[in-house]
Amino acid sequence: MSLFFVTGGARSGKSRYAERLAGRLAGGSRPVLYVATAEPLDGEMRERVLRHRQRRPEDWRTVEARRSVGAALRDALAGDRSRAVVLLDCLSLLVSNVLLDVAGELGELSESGPELERRAGREVVLEVEALLGATAGTDLVVVSNEVGWSVVPPYRLGRVYRDLLGEANAQVAARSEAACLLVAGLPVVLRGGDEVTGDCGTDGA
Where are the catalytic residues (predicted)? Predict the structure, then answer.
């Protein structure tokens, strides 16, 4: 079984590409488990979540997990791990959720110091390792944002987030069999795929 990493900027087409990839891996015969890390706290996010939900096939199962993704997946995959295809969308929000939770616990939502960076960094690493451990033996597709090429955030908490997400992306990509970057809706293969077709690890995905 394999780990596929799909990254890109905002509205780059990465979620659609990852959904097609997961469908291709499932081949119509394997269950797909969609892990949603978004927390729809406002109208804009609720609309975005609804659009994603309407786009997915009706037979895909959805697990909502803003944190503790590994534990949620262990429960959801009980007895079906070897057959399932797991799609996590997205790592970016998982990292954001970790950072905001830790900042809230430390009372540092407006400012950030070394302790926040250290603690949030540890928590993110643990979240990613738990995710990868819980999905051992499955095909896993991880979607994430690439934020390191954008404008440098003007506030420290934003810069901490940028750094944590970059490290988490590297942590997942290093373990992946295939990885691709979506640019303007087009996949650019980074590892393990077909550079001509933009196929990230499966024929015709």
Answer: 52
SS (H, E, C) 61-122: EEEECCCCHHHHHHHHCCCCCCCCEEEEECHHHHHHHHHHHHHHHHCCCCCCCHHHHHHHHH
The number of C-alpha atoms within 13 Å of 22 and in the hemisphere containing its C-beta is: 29
**9 marked ligand binding residue:** yes
Q: Is there a binding annotation on residue 148?
A: no
Has 13 been labeled as part of a binding site? yes
The closest alpha carbon to 36, from 15, 6, 13, belongs to: 15
Domain at 3-191: CATH architecture: 3-Layer(aba) Sandwich (3.40)
CA distance 182 to 190: 10
183 band by pLDDT with thresholds 50, 70 and 90: very high
Q: Give 148-159 pLDDT, tens digit per residue.
A: 988 889 888 999
Query: Whose structure tokens read 């990230």?
Result: 200
Nearest CA to 158 among 125, 122, 109? 109
Q: Which two tokens stand for residue 18?
A: 């990852």
Residue 171 annotated in ligand binding: no
Q: Strand pairing partners for 61?
A: 33
Query: What residues are annotated to the active site?
Result: 52
pTM comes to 0.90
Name every residue whose Cβ is closer than 8 Å to that of residue 174 and which is 6 or more positions away in sequence: none
In which element (H, E) is residue 158 found?
helix 156-175
